[in-house]
Amino acid sequence: CGIFGVTGVQDAATFVALGLHALQHRGQEAGGIVAHDPEQGFNSARRFGYVRDNFTSADIMETLPGPLAIGHVRYSTTGSKGQTAIRDVQPFFGEFSMGGAAIAHNGNITNANALRRELIERGSIFQSSSDSECIIHLMARSLQRNIPERMEDALRRVEGAFSVVAMTRTKLIGVRDPLGVRPLVLGRVGDGWCLSSETCALDIIGAEFIREIEPGEMVVITADKGVESHFPFRPQPSKFCIFEHVYFSRPDSILGGRSVYETREAIGRELAKESPAEADIVCPVPDSGTPAAIGYSLESGIPYAMGIIRNQYMGRTFIEPTEQIRNMGVRLKLNVNRALIRGKRVVLVDDSVVRGTTSRKIKEMILDAGAKEVHFRIASPPTAWPCFYGVDTPEREKLLAATMSEDEMVKHLAVDSLKFISLDGLYRAVGESQGRNKACPQYCDACFSGEYPVVPADKVEQGFKM
Ligand code: SF4
Ligand code: MG
After folding, report:
1. CA–CA separation, 311 vs 334, rounded Å?
2. Which of the chain's ends, N or C, has fewer CB atoms near its CB within 10 Å?
3. Ligand nearest to the CA of residue 380, numbered in listed order
4. Could you give all domains of the chain from N- to C-terminal order, each with its CATH number?
């Protein structure tokens, strides 16, 4: 999901809408905005679909006045799978004795089922099926006197991944979980401040990128005192999601002081060194494979070519929630550029192989178009484990790499060769020159390694074997 908040500007909701539009790649199912105005109080709007189709009309934006607003774009990782209900669309709102508060959450709470059971037993009435709603109920039960402290109380009970943007009548609040699994950045816009999942959303509103919120940090931003920072959790070694670098973040964002584009190009170079191929052209599977394909081409000297053309009017395939839509999605979204492909030995670069559905279809399309050979090069190691921290990978049985060896995958996909970047190679490409520290990995890489930095308690309870 994507989260964004801004304070200290006129018509804050408009800034949020723009920010969410720039974060649309992080979630396309639905979006919501809550705004506060000193005279009109809190107002909210939640809609299915794209930000640009909902939060542009004056009809809606006029109902969201005020200098303080937050928003969320949703892609469902928990809650009602497949079909999002409007009641699951964030931000969530709670009315407390000291005033109202709204929160928007990116990540996934790994002990949400246990918390929900406990809260329901003690009288909480849940409105949604979302894991994030636990935070509001935990806040309601806290005995602290102000909202930021209630939030701290609540978040200390929560396990898993959370980047949160929240607001009260006067405060904009940002928090990252102690491992810092999901991103969150701080920006300056005019005399105001903003918080965003990624820096690309700062650019769109002309905000200046100040810094990343640290793992375990909470910032409370007010008009008079500016940004106050503290660290309410027990410190832990950070575990930023390495897959943000590979796929999830936008290439024009800055992560860990480095452009995501440059990192992906470096991944492609590393891949070319590790797994060269005898071929005539290097083609990306657009858009997610493009920077890595450029890196592969630069390193290998094999010319880059746009052998697959993407229809720009389709969203991300993966984020389409049902298998059936995803299946159709491939053809709706990608087409082979026949003139380029015919008679060629093609290196195809993609960011990841998850179920193998996309990869298989693309390979068929390329061979139909008359390619002589197809060599798949993948910018991440085999995805053999599900993510429980906010990226919607399927159950283990549906992951190609969980059920097949690399040789079996070559046969299954019927390609001439298939190579994944090594885990160490990926670490080198994201800037860890010594590779992966086995004793204490510098990132979360659980979907590749099976080493989960937080025990996924709910899943373990349901029988998941780590
Ligand atoms: Fe990211 Fe994979 Fe870890 Fe999920 S399991 S947080 S996708 S690295
Ligand atoms: Mg892709």
Report:
1. 6
2. C
3. 1
4. 2-238 (3.60.20.10), 264-431 (3.40.50.2020)
